[in-house]
Amino acid sequence: MNATKILQQGRQPMIRFLGKRTTPSKVDHTPHVHPASPSQSLPESFASYRQKAQQHGPLNQNSKFSTSHIGASPGSSLGPVEAGKGTFFDRSELPQRFQRMAWTEAEIEAIESGGASLHA
Amino acid sequence: MFRAVASRAVPRAARPVTQSTFCAPSIYFQGRLRRGYASEAEEKDLVIIGGGVAGYVAAIKAGQSGLKVACIEKRGALGGTCLNVGCIPSKSLLNNSHLYHQILHDTKNRGIEVGDVKLNLGAMMKAKETSVSGLTKGIEFLFKKNNVEYIKGAGAFQDEHTVAVNLVEGGETTVRGKNILIATGSEATPFPGLTIDEKKVITSTGAIALEEVPKKLTVIGGGIIGLEMASVWSRLGSEVTVVEYLGQIGGPGMDKDVAKQAQKLLQKQGLKFKLNTKVVSGDADGEGVKVTVEAAKGGKEETLDADVCLVAIGRRPYTNGLGLENIGLEVDERGRLIIDQEYRTKIPHIRAIGDVTFGPMLAHKAEEESVAVVEYITKGYGHVNYGAIPSVMYTHPEVAWVGQNEQELAAANVKYNVGQFPFSANSRAKTNLDTEGFVKMLSDAETDRILGIHIIGPNAGEMIAEGVLALEYGASSEDVARTSHAHPTLSEAFKEAAMATYDKAVHY
């Protein structure tokens, strides 16, 4: 028994119960290199994509628009929406997704026939 | 609506992000070609391309987490390479060919006398197919149970949120997803100069479906897949020669002592090896397949004649027809999709897991990633320990390992202790008359923390689970050694190897 006592005092098991698994309170979501990546580096495109996309969401954690919760900074901090004095918007100069789409013959036909041409 | 009355030279707009575009210009062009109709299908929370181990596990997990999920698979059966033409059918053949071989050669000394033993290859293949179809149908059931929409077809990116699907039964559909997961897996790398026909020049897919036992079989590549298939056909009567470019079998991850022992045991079973040998050319025009080889460092050429040649030089990520170019996703020099630590590609809502991206091409690694990626989507946090992923070769005896091998530790200048225990000193192995192999454990010289475990022996693939757990928990070899293992079991060899690492084994 004494031998066991001595043994237990001398040895601290490396396996210990650490408690129930929990999600860490702070998780860094900025892109880092994948642990199994052989190159140990992320291509520039990861940062540049986020740079481009940051106006649409809190992708870029380091950006001033998304340092805290949604709505933390007022929309006015993005700058004026109105065109400056002497400047005017032209619809054709907007990104393509804001421009009118051309109707195809099939679509015109479908509307004119009340959808019947889709089943013809 | 707006008309430019000022000079065109005036800046177009005053907003600070005029040049920003949410996605590549080509996508806008595509988007413009697609008009939204009211009848369009609802957007899914997660669309998974690929119903292999990575894809189907993620689909089930996502269904369990309450996500609206669709899984696209073009094979017509779920389970991917692993279930249909890989791990599962090969294990069926390995198990049954081992039984056949054992009945032929290893019964008399066990007191069993058998009469005429005949091989019925057709029935053996049917047993394999029964196992496979049972498992794949099981996944379809699990899909239904977990509300996963199963779309049979080939998916291709139309834009960053839309996947166009060419349906197997004809027709097309599109599916939109808030998140998209690429899990398209891998395919066998072909050998330049040899056209794969899956009859004479085969990959692992053809090797599990040969209609007759080839008299002679040449295997290019002495890795795990090559050696498993070599074992099957050798047991069934083929004369098998394995050609390997490196100086050891089993691939670079296998410990050198284990590789040496495995080679010795496989040679004893009748396999022939040509190590440090490169294949110069192959010719399948005649009746058989001629493979010309020479020493890797240069030397005299030699021609190997065979009825069938198995090309098992590795696998490569499979992204053909996925439309990656439509969304500008990048692959590395080996065709792997580039991802970050949360499996995100550069487009954050498109993620990739399994063989199509980094890490070892193993089904259980893909499975771990499937759970983690769904957790990243739903909880923002996931877990895969790439340092504790086991590898198993299902030959006889089996080979299994986890963590680092001796040559890796030596190269990294890490001081370590080695403990080894042979199965010939294990009581259960003795009673089973199956005593070949050993357990080898490597631990840090200073802290005794386990760094690697390498097993060659009966049931090594099952036994390694204990090693993976030890590594995951950061156990010391003494922790394992002081844990009670049932007697008489093969796992006692594991405990004794741990004892030998920090002190001395009792029975050796």
TrEMBL record, chain A:
The lineage of its organism: Eukaryota, Fungi, Dikarya, Ascomycota, Pezizomycotina. Residues 22-90 are annotated as: Disordered. Transmembrane segments: none annotated. It is found in: Mitochondrion. One of its GO terms (cellular component) is mitochondrion. This is Ribosomal protein S36, mitochondrial. Residues 51-76 have a biased composition (Polar residues). It comes from Karstenula rhodostoma CBS 690.94. InterPro entries: Kgd4/YMR-31. Its main location: mitochondrion.
Automatic annotation (TrEMBL), chain B:
Binds 1 FAD per subunit. NAD(+) binds at G221, G222, G223, I224, I225, G226, L227, E228, E244, G314. FAD binds at K91, G155, T184, G185, S186, D355, M361, L362, A363, H364. The active site is at H487 (proton acceptor). Residues 44-369 form the FAD/NAD(P)-binding domain. One of its GO terms (cellular component) is oxoglutarate dehydrogenase complex. Gene3D superfamilies: 3.30.390.30, FAD/NAD(P)-binding domain. Its EC number is 1.8.1.4. This is Dihydrolipoyl dehydrogenase. It comes from Karstenula rhodostoma CBS 690.94.
